[in-house]
Design a protein that fits this description.
383 residues; mainly beta; Lipocalin; 3 domains; 5-stranded antiparallel β-sheet; globular
Length: 383
């Protein structure tokens, strides 16, 4: 009887473990498992700017100066706001709304100088402007959000910190060489590069420069931070590893061409360059662990998960998924011939979002019963 009871107990525990693992697998997005189309939002005037995501909403910048808000759950249309001019930097969102940078164009016949930049926040519920601040020049690249500030750099060399509640300027910093990267936050510091190859570590609360490191050529990539080291790529094909505490060089290695992106990826410093290769570099010494050639160059920031990396080459008809262990292809997503853009893929909950020239695709590991297969042409939702 004791043996029977123990056997029943073990069987019950084993069954509970199996069910728990199955439930975990159903709620955990992975790149190695099959991906199924969940919804598609069709629009023909997408930009190369990455959409913003905040509190179950997706905000898409369009080329006509519009921002469209969609439900992240099913892609349903919420609202559209016409901000005038064009969207000049990738937006960022929080629970309150979406922060948008724009550029207006001066009147040719005017003899007076006119400010051409602006930043504003649009309400999450309605798209109505909650506050707006005019700027002498438009913000470029991508906006960045902290708990209290929005950061962005302009084409005339200014780096701004704006208060999220009011739009007031917390601090502003000027660089005659002009900043040319999307800023990155880590701890209490902000990291950004300029067109002369300088990498700056800046106190995000005050704007004070903590240190500066000069690379050989212009920095092209946002900084990657891994365990006390800042990594930056250069247009001369080099990757630099710099101590975040001292600003001194730890190592430098060359890739085959100008570096496009750097990302922490498990044991890799994942690097893409203009020679159409993706590299796995050792964060410790820059040694090449593996490299893989793609169909075309990758302008968008890759999406990294524990089991792989999703890349969207501009050439070809698919997004490619590689293993982080050896760089071998483990999956792919068909998007159509030359349909990828420079907008980065995103993970929102369990949905993978891909911005293409035809519209926004949402994929997940869970099949949608209304879609017979991942490759089936969806019925677009448009406004």
């Amino acid at each position: 009887m004791f043996r029977n009871a123990m056997a029943a107990l073990i069987s019950t525990c084993f069954l509970q473990i199996i069910l728990a693992c199955a439930a975990f697998g159903q709620g955990h997005a992975t790149l190695s498992r099959p991906l199924h189309l969940r919804w598609f939002f069709e629009v023909n005037n997408f930009t190369n700017l990455t959409p913003a995501v905040g509190v179950e909403k997706i905000y898409i910048p369009l080329s006509g100066g519009n921002i469209v808000s969609l439900s992240a759950t099913d892609g349903s249309y919420a609202w559209k706001s016409d901000i005038g001019g064009v969207v000049s930097a990738a937006p960022v969102a929080d629970a309150k709304g979406v922060y948008v940078a724009s550029e207006s164009f001066p009147v040719p016949s005017s003899t007076y100088y006119r400010a051409t930049g602006a930043i504003r926040i649009l309400s999450r519920q309605s798209g109505v402007t909650l506050w707006m601040r005019m700027l002498a020049s438009p913000l470029r690249g991508a906006l960045l959000s902290s708990d209290t500030n929005i950061f962005g750099s302009t084409s005339d060399g200014h780096l701004y910190a704006f208060k999220k509640e009011t739009g007031e300027v917390s601090w502003v910093k000027y660089d005659p060489a002009a900043f040319n990267l999307a800023p990155v936050l880590s701890g209490s510091s902000l990291y950004i590069g300029d067109r002369e190859g300088n990498l700056f570590s800046i106190n995000q609360a005050t704007g004070q420069t903590l240190w500066r490191y000069r690379t050989r050529k212009s920095s092209r990539t946002p900084v990657a931070i891994i365990e006390g080291t800042a990594y930056v790529g250069s247009s001369d094909g080099s990757v630099y590893a710099i101590s975040v505490s001292t600003g001194r060089l730890r190592w430098r290695v060359r890739t085959g061409a100008a570096v496009q992106s750097l990302l922490p990826a498990g044991k890799c410093l994942l690097t893409t360059s203009l020679d159409n290769f993706v590299y796995c570099l050792s964060p410790e010494n820059g040694k090449k662990v593996w490299k893989r050639q793609l169909a075309g160059r990758v302008e968008a920031q890759p999406l990294v998960l524990d089991d792989g990396v999703l890349l969207s080459p501009l050439a070809g008809d698919e997004c490619v998924i590689l293993s982080l262990q050896d760089g071998k292809r483990i999956n792919s997503i068909f998007v159509g011939e030359d349909n990828n853009t420079e907008a980065s893929p995103l993970l929102v909950g369990e949905l993978f979002l891909l911005t293409t020239r035809k519209g926004l695709y949402a994929f997940s590991n869970q099949p949608d019963q209304s879609m017979s297969s991942p490759a089936e042409e969806p019925t677009p939702q448009t406004r």
